[in-house]
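Collaborator request, handled under Task 6.
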Amino acid sequence: MEKTYKGWEIAKMISEGELKDGTVINSKGSKFTVLYGCLTNGLNEKYSRHVESGNSFLTSTSRTFSIERKKYSFAEAFKAYEEGKEIECCYSGQMLKKENEKDYCFDYKKGKYVPLSFDETFFDITNIRSEWYIND
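Structure tokens returned to the collaborator:
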């Protein structure tokens, strides 16, 4: 599931170095990139260094931002899963992880990971053909 942030949170993550150069940020159909510690739209306009009181889109209370995540094929994601990383299906939102040679999936109703039952139809063809996130 895609997490959203307010502009001040994005500015803080950039200033603290949490968002590295090349990170893509989406907001209202526009893409911005972190470059040299600033948020830019690719036209050399630097936003995060010049937040003017009340005038910057970063200070707007109605605007939200999301951090674009790299997407992987199922084969790449499953390899990471086997190495113990959490993976997430871009299509269905299902999250999986492997701990101590046991397989788990995230149960949104319970709010926690539960043992994965392979009699479920989790690995249907749509999920396999979908792109996946590898979560750190």
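The cover message to the collaborator said: "Residues 7-15 form the longest helix (9 residues). Residues 77 and 134 are 6 Å apart (CA to CA). Please let us know whether this matches your experimental observations."
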